[in-house]
Amino acid sequence: IHKSITELLNIITHIQEILNIQRQLVRGHKGVHERKPVNVENIIYDCRSMLFASIDKKGIQFVIDIKPGTYPIKGDHTKLMQVILNILKNSLEAIDMEKPEKSISITLESTNKCIGLKIVDSGQGFDEETSKRFFERGFTTKKSGTGLGLYNCKSIVESHAGTFEITSEGAGLGAVTTIKFEI
What we know:
By secondary structure, this protein is α+β, with helices and mostly antiparallel strands. The chain is built from 5 helices and 7 strands; from the N terminus they run αβαββαββααββ. The longest helix has 26 residues, at 2-27.
């Protein structure tokens, strides 16, 4: 019970930090760029812990493939966690629960020049016209979306000297999100 309570308190703290970041971004404040050594692998596992119940409840096959290597970058743990959580939430929402094959996979690999993170889902996918607008502030494909999620994600990744890209082969064919950080 103690371990579960500690995990829940950590999750609540992360959620509060993410909400504070969202409020700052909505107000147009970039905030202080707090850069500390963070491990991208740890961020992935923290995100999995936060979303595990939703993933499990929906029967989604969730695979994490971390290639041998090290994954430290100078960054803001909470902001990077916000990026990965947003992508995973989008993937969860894009997957048709009636489909027999429901999956999300995360691959993390490192070279001597960059850390690459790829998230692949079996969701609805999208057409080329939609992909051109993903990073416009205020653009959303969701009924209750704000249009800030992917815009903020890209801004955060770029502020960490990274690149952010989302692709799809088309409607019904899932999506691939690729993030690269120079090291």
